[in-house]
Amino acid sequence: MDYIKRNLVNKIKHLMTMFPAVVLLGARQVGKSTILRNTLPGAQIFDLENEQDFLLAEHDPLVIFNEYAKPIIFDEAQMSHNLFKALRVEIDKTRENGQFLLSGSSSPALLGNISETLAGRVAILEIPCLDFAESHATKSSHFLKNIAHLEKIKDLKPLCSLENVFESCLYGGYPQPFILRRDLDFFDTWFENYFKTYIDRDIRALFPTLKLDSFKKFIRMMARSSGEIINYSDYARSLDVSQPTIKKYFEIADGTFIWRMQPSYAKNSKKTVIKMPKGHFRDSGLLCYLMNINTVEELQNHPQFGRIWESFIIEQILKMTNLFYAKYEYYFYRTKAQAEIDLILEGRFGRIPIEIKSGISTGQKQIISLKNFVKDNACPFAIVINRGEEVKMLAEKVIQIPVNYI
Fold this sequence. Notes:
There is one protein chain. This protein has 406 residues and is an alpha/beta fold. The chain folds into two domains: 9-126, P-loop containing nucleotide triphosphate hydrolases (Rossmann fold), CATH 3.40.50.300; 132-405, no CATH class. The chain is 44% helix and 17% strand. The protein is built from 18 helices and 13 strands. It has helices spanning 9-16, 32-39, 51-59, 61-67, 82-94, 108-117, 132-136, 150-153, 162-171, 175-179, 184-206, 212-224, 232-239, 243-255, 284-290, 296-301, 305-324, 368-377; strands spanning 21-25, 44-47, 72-75, 100-104, 122-126, 259-262, 278-281, 328-334, 340-347, 350-356, 382-386, 392-395, 398-402. The strands form three sheets. The chain has a six-stranded mixed β-sheet, with helices on both faces. Strands 2-3-4-1-5 form a five-stranded parallel β-sheet, with helices on both faces. The longest helix is centred in the middle third of the chain and has 23 residues, at 184-206. It is globular, with a radius of gyration of 22 Å. The model has no long low-confidence stretch (mean pLDDT 93).
């Protein structure tokens, strides 16, 4: 299978010059193991899903530290508890940076081990699915890098075709099925096995007391309401479980990187805002599989296309934001008067409201909420992302950016 160059490799290498250890977190099959090998191609790798490597890391890690040159890679590090205690001792001997590179799928045990034993010694970086540029081997966009500079945004150029964008929306960003997407039988089988493995192996192992049948129904229910404001009581009634159980389900889905909780923006608001969170599937390919959407035409004609498209673009933006900025926050905004903004980014670059449209043009009535938010919150400008043909100003402090420019 072809290797897809990942844009985060340079960021990982930079973090290794700043910290003794770097941990890569992400869902299964997003390419963490491949990234490990391509970040440090000459380093010794211990795969803790391999029994021999696990036993050595768990019971005699000093052998590893004494016999192998650093940096050393530990893949699926959440499998071992004792490894983290040994890493702390080894790191504290010299406090040299760049000694260890680890990966893991999110779990309470892994995050607990990191916070308890490696605090101050480790950088944590989330590895997402592929973005536009990675999927289609194009140049990375400077959109997020220059998000604080309106004049530079005006100079953006198209990076791919709209056909490429729709293809990414339909097939998603998991590397293996995207590369082999022309083989539809393989594509369907991959996602079927992925979903089954996620429930029957990962969730069973991480949360052994969880009722898997209820959780499986919950995941499929999430697919039907991806992109909506979350109403815990509706889920509880439909699945005949308590609201605390539903909240736990959402925490599990978010913590295992298949779902993203998007909090409501209520800072300094002059309006009465809806404070319940929104949520969506992180990968549009997995979502389309669960909703039985098989072609671009079916996707475009689907009743939920608008929500699928919105969530897909939000994920692309957040992947790029994570590439360029270490600290930022993201929200959605909706008032009880139905004023709504899909994404608000806040960081050292300022506060930028972003509205996502699936159409080719965006009328003045569609940007009233953006203009009011800019005025009320002293934002430098707002952005509309749609399927237009050029970057242009739609109003004072409101700029249109076509989706294939980002």
